[in-house]
Amino acid sequence: MDFPDPSNVNAESTDSPPAEAPLLQQVVFTFDGNPDPNLISINTIQIRDSSGFPVPGTFAVSGMVVTFTPQLPTGPVTIQANGAVDVGGAGLAPAQAYTVRTGPGVFSFISRVNAQLLARFADPTNASDILIGFKTGSDPTKFFSGPPLTSPLLVSADPPDGTTGVSPNLYTDPDGVFPPRGSFELHFDGAVSPDSATSPATPST
Fold this sequence. Notes:
By secondary structure, the protein is mostly beta strands. It has 2 domains: 27-142, Sandwich (Immunoglobulin-like), CATH 2.60.40; 150-200, no CATH class. 5% of the residues lie in helices and 25% in strands. The protein has 2 helices and 11 strands. It has helices at 115-121, 194-197; strands at 27-30, 46-49, 57-62, 65-70, 78-79, 85-86, 97-102, 122-123, 126-135, 154-158, 185-188. Strands 2-7-9-8 form a 4-stranded antiparallel beta sheet. A 3-stranded antiparallel beta sheet has the order 1-4-3, with no helix packed on it. The chain has a two-stranded antiparallel sheet with strand order 5-6. The longest helix is centred in the middle third of the chain and has 7 residues, at 115-121. It is elongated, with a radius of gyration of 21 Å.
């Protein structure tokens, strides 16, 4: 099991649970056989918050490797006047504890857990399973680290290129000189950081 850290924000090595993980911390499970993707779920690989609720997210299966990615945010980080943090819908919350549990006791596909892994993280309630705890950090600048560092590709836009008669709401128009304003949607082939997506554009000259 690994906790990928492509941005190098965790003090621990990737084979150890982080103490200040980003809110997009992935968890990677490697088996010695190919698990059935239909059997991978929040019940067979249990990633829970401190109250025992499943962490929102998705599992991706590629051969012998299963990757869990917490729910991606749809908005930027905002900090309220009272100090409360709105993480824009991310699956993990800041400064919280989480657990990862799996093994033959919860997933019948697993015949046994690697001996070294079992020795480090034995589940006290079931000697054949593992129970791993990790915590998230509280530094907003590191919240959205975690996924692989790739630049998404713009695949489509709505309205499409060349559309006329609609304005993108980039200016004031008290006299109604310009066409009606409309919403614009950009579709990418991967996740986009909400912080960068809402950053002011560089003015054109």
